Amino acid sequence: MKVSVDRSLCYGSAECAYRVPAVFAFEDGYGVVRPGQEGAGEDPEVAEAAEKCPSQAIVFAE
Ligand code: SF4
């Protein structure tokens, strides 16, 4: 499963990058998925980061 950040929703709390630094980074005031980590959607830590994202900006797709 693929993971991405919907920049239109992200308000830049940086929590994703703090929780799962191997997958998320914080760039230019937004959370981003690190290049090459787009397929990390199955990772339970990523699921938890999505759950805890205060703006529900972390989204999944098949
Ligand atoms: S946790 Fe959510 S709101 Fe915060 S930087 Fe990450 S995607 Fe954006």
From TrEMBL:
Function text: Ferredoxins are iron-sulfur proteins that transfer electrons in a wide variety of metabolic reactions.
Name recorded for this polypeptide: Ferredoxin
Keywords, alphabetical: 3Fe-4S, Electron transport, Iron, Iron-sulfur, Metal-binding, Transport
InterPro entries: 3Fe4S_ferredoxin, Fe-S_cluster_ET
PANTHER family xrefs: FERREDOXIN
Cofactor(s) listed: [3Fe-4S] cluster
Any matching Pfam family: Fer4_13
